[in-house]
Amino acid sequence: MHTLRFSDEATPTRRGKPKGVAGAEVWLALAGADEPAPPLNTDPRVGEAGYRFLALSSRGNLKADFTSADKGKTAYYALRWVSTRGENGPWSEIASATVAA
Q1: How far apart are CA 97 and CA 63, in angstroms?
Q2: What is the mean pLDDT of residues 16-31?
Q3: What is the reported pTM?
């Protein structure tokens, strides 16, 4: 299991979301240990073929569960804020973590 915590870069010590934001879309890609992260599309209106939608989180944290078949793989996470009007913001930097046993 991975526990993700995220915040607005303008207020990194607060876990609250920016004003006018419903939450953050969290996207996940799993790859072999030596494989690079799939590239992100620069168009914020679309998702990514190499990533799957994990959740919309409004609390600044999320848990991602994995199976034993994922052991040793690298999990790549990409997030983007979604406004209360449903508009997607730009992608975050990609974060990664190894899936443990």
Answers
A1: 13
A2: 90
A3: 0.86
